[in-house]
Amino acid sequence: MSLSSLDDLTRNSFVGGLSSSKVGVLGSGQPSLSPNSATQRALSNSVLVLYRSFPGDPVLQEYLKVALQNGLLSIAIFVSTLLSMARSPELHQPATLDMLCRTALDAHYSSGQSSTDLADYDSPITVLTTLQDALALLRVAHGLPMSHFHQLTTSASELVALLFSCVEISQGPPAQCIALLSDANSMLSHDSISQNVRQALEAFTLSLGLFVGDSEAKASKTTEAPLMHNFHLVVGKNDAMSSNNDTVTFSLTLNYLLTHRAEEFGVGSGSDAARLFVSMFRSNSWAPPVFYTQLLLSAFVCLSETTIISPKLWASFIISRLPSILVTFEKVVYVEGAAPENWRGALQVAVTALMRRADLLERCDRVVDQSAQQDGLAPLRSIFRDLIRQFQHSGLLELQFILAIDPNHTQSDLMSELNDQDGFFSSRLSSEMEFEDARSSIERIWNEPMMHKAFSEFALRRFKAAASSLDTETLSFWARMFYSWDLVLDLLALHQSIGELVFHALVCLQDFDCETVGDPQTGVSQLGHVVLFAQSTLARFHLQNEVFTYGKRQVPARLVRSTAVVYEVAALSGEDSSAFNTWYKAIFDRNSEGIEDTIIRSVKPRTLLKISATLFSSAMRDPEIDNELLNNGVSYFTGSLLNWTLVGVVLNITREISQQGFSPATSKPLHVLRTLLLSPDCPRTIRCLCGQAITTLLADKRSQNTMSPADTTAIVEAVSRASFPNLNSTPAPAASSTAQVLAYPRRAIQDAIANARASKAPSLDVDRCIRICGPAQFLRMLWSELLAPGGDADVNARIATFVVTIPRPFNTPPLMLNFFNTVLPHLIAMIDARQSGDQTVPAELLGSIVCSALLASLHLDLVFTEAPRPVLGQASPSLARRLAADLRARVSRGSNVSKTILQRLSSSPSIVSNFPFFK
User: pLDDT tens, 708-728?
Assistant: First the structure.
């Protein structure tokens, strides 16, 4: 019998009134009705199609029951055809659909088989289609009128819950997987679904989002651009620290990016953060949903656990900066000629997974609100809602999806306000207004993270334009705002290059000439704010650049960094000598008439800044200058005209006092120091920048012999009040002992390892550690802690890989080279010297680190092609070639560890395909 005639047989039997038992006998006697899938589908459809004309007919139900009982029709194929047919509006009758669902459920329960018999595993596409059809049925069930005689929502929910709790998917098309996840996420947004359906869908979507794509991605990754061809999932299989559940790498990276936000490769350094994410995505073989899920979860975990970086800054990063990074990421990650990834679907998966972490989201909101209260700021709205609103504004998510997961979502009024961004900010922030009046506007902007990106762009444009035209009035307004209110500069550091801001400030200082301004005293006072901004920013963010470059112009940082240098007066020449003599006479001569405009016009401010420390040092040593004359000269520097020059002056005075050992000769310097620091007009920035030197000086017990306790207390309190509240990544304060400072690197490593093992957000400030103990010692210290008892090899490998491959400023020693060229040979020799039974664990860990580091180096090279040199110090092929030769040479000399590492490298398809030296 042909399959087409099967429809006729079923119809004729039904119309002719043939009983189900006779139809069963008739069917079982047909040799063509062997139990293959095509025949079973045809049989099922031949009955189901009759329901269009005979809704809820019990005879048709008996036909299906007999076919299921006699083995003519499998439960899986019946469920598949039922769900497919249920999409037809002609079957949208509560009685019919409830009857069919109940038939499938009764057959399943009576069979005594496991719930896996409900799904047809003919192909991955079939499984995915069945699940999509099941969700479609559930939507229909909830949309049809309620009936007291039929419980369609109950039976449909029961069937859907069973399917999603047991199904196994393998090698499904990515587009279909994402579509299924989107459907499931949409269904979860409905409050009407039953608890068992909700639990099954939540487990399914979270598992698919977190554990999709790992095995195929690793198998297919043979070039520098791994392509994700298929998704894989086995529900119920969980790897607590697999590459699909790795928040360690992201937490370390995110903490580092924010800690060093103003430096090269920091979060505010253009597209560097996005490129770093691309290299992480490629070298770790993550599937897009896994990558985005781990990134978002890690960011929120970092916020909830932060102890150093302000929670408000984390919130601003997540809401205002992360979406723009992801926009750039999706552009950079695209590979010409490769199958495009479904990043929008991946982000939907990640957002859905994040949304289910209600405890985490609530904790983040609470932490940020507490921080805002402490600073006298208004609490923020829901961070999660602002984030998805920004995702929509950035084009990363569609409104339809957002409404599905958050029906209360509304578009922010800020979007309409920001259509004219310049007008919006110009009306609230202008150099013509009183400076303190700008505070309320800044607080309003800070409390609206969606404004942060636009504000940072506006502020940079204004600052740059004012510097180019030497408009010191506008420039001083913005510079003063930047160094007076930490949150403003923090905000800019997330979005803009702080180095560019410093460049424009230095250019203004270098080019400014008082001869061209109408009121030189006002001009110099305004320029002073620019100088204080540059000095405080260099110190606050530890910018070590000797030269700042923008376009084709370079400007030296020594203009503001070397102000504490005292020159031999006889060695000064030219403009410097003339300026010194002019100013020395004006401020320390008994016959001086004060500082006239002609004196100010005759000397460039940059020269005055350079010689200020020399002026004070000479005056304090000059026997002809008594206390009255000295006080008179010092008084000029306590006002706004010259107090911007005091960083170098104060630092030099503290140095001279320390060198002279608090002898009677230091009475003048101590008096001057007290006068300057306790002056009501002394800028907070001066006290802050000189605070460490001052507290170190006053901690010397000898100071008690030359300075009253009241003066000491007053100075210490003034310095303490001026301290930067968010100053991070700095050497320990002077109050710490040398032992405490030296112990910091080991303590930081131990904390990072402990947090990672406890599933918390680890943080490790590599740069601070290196400044204390040097790169080689730090790496050896790291290795010793990684080998401590109770370690997790996977966690240890991730931490070590992060340390040696995180890009750092070009003027810092590259850890990657230090590791491969200096530390690795030492570690190999050390492990080789152990007993053979004690070599396995450290050798395998070392091999894992080397393998991961090489892949990370490769992908960093590929994404940072425009960098002036390889970001890790040497191109990865050169590094690999040298490593291969060195390992083989050691193997020839009997090194077991080198052999283990070589075997690890040669067995990795990714390593061999990209570095043929290891074949």
Answer: 888 888 888 888 887 744 444
